Amino acid sequence: MLSVATLLTAQSLSPRDSAVHALNRLAYGPRPGDVDRVARGGVMRWIDEQLAPERIDDAALATRERQFDLLNYSREDLAASTSTPSARAASGSRLSAPTA
Question: How many domains does the chain have?
């Protein structure tokens, strides 16, 4: 149960202070622009968004991920790439881009 002091403290926070508090407690701290965005939209709305990740637009992330060929390698290719150089030389294996 919340104490009266806790309720009064929570009610006395400005929207900006509430956003900073939520971002520090529920995320890894605010990034540039996060505090203003969360304060503008409301902390409860931000929390609801975090609990429904399927509604978050990941198009920019998907575009950025395409830069990393490593994400398309098979487990075998990854295992071969992390073996010691002498083991790779002995087996003659080389890491190459996967063929699709």
Answer: 2
Largest CA distance in the chain: 70
pLDDT, average across residues 39-64: 91
Would you say residue 1 lies in a domain?
A: no
Q: Which residue has tokens 């902390």?
A: 43
Is the distance from CB of 35 to CB of 20 less than 8 angstroms?
yes
Q: Is residue 10 over pLDDT 60?
A: no
**CA dist 92 → 31, 43, 80, 83, 86 (Å):** 46, 56, 10, 12, 10
In a domain, 72, yes or no: yes
Q: Is residue 98 part of a domain?
A: no
Domain of 77, in residue numbers: 62-91
- Per-residue burial over 30-59, b if 16 or more Cβ lie within 10 Å, else e, is beeebbeebbeeebeebeeeeeeeeeeeee
Nearest Cα neighbor of 73 from 89, 92, 96 is: 96
pLDDT of residue 77 exceeding 80, the answer is: yes
